[in-house]
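Example A, followed by Example B.
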Amino acid sequence: VQLVESGGGLVQPGGSLRLSCAASGFTFIRYAMTWYRQAPGKERELVAGIRWSGGSIYYADSVKGRFTISRDNAKNMVYLQMNNLKPEDTAVYYCNAHDINGNSIGPWGQGTQVTVSS
């Protein structure tokens, strides 16, 4: 299993970024996909999740209305569109895959750094 995140960067408050996660080494369509983030000194937290069909989606309260998770099963990709970014969104963002019991199957990758600052 390999998960490679990209798309992070430095953005001003109110700006947007689109994160991408390239997945390989497993049957992508069989697994739910998630985005997590970890800010300095804090635990990793779940930001958004999407089932294999894209039909059931979860968002943390802190990002509802601002972030959108999506997936392209033909390309084995999952995305996180982040709008109206806030300084508190600053973190390293990671993706992972989960089986039907919710267990993650992938090792945590390098993540992609998102910094929101003026």
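Example B, a separate protein, is given below in the same form.
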Amino acid sequence: QLQVVESGGGLAQPGGSLRLSCAAAGFTLDDYAIGWFRQAPGKEREGVSCISSTGGSTRYADSVKGRFTISRDNAKNTVYLQMNSLKPEDTAVYYCAAGLSGTRRYDYWGRGTQVTVSS
């Protein structure tokens, strides 16, 4: 079964850090762009960051610029989202999604990992 699986969520204090991982199962990520999304209670899902299949291009939502860093290690078939200087408003379920490069759509979605930022 082709899927992506998120991990690394948890509880962090304001100002703290977490690193999320997105691992592929059943396929290799080499040809896939990866996006990170999040959805907070009562809010719509929003895009957080994305990275091209080669890693040469990245984008960030204004709300996380300068605090989050997306990266990939194709040898490990994994994409990471390093989250620093966390704020309570970063609290959400975080999802990763994989889309074949050039198709402008995401075909595989994970089930999400909860991130809670609270003192």
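On Example B: The mean pLDDT is 96.
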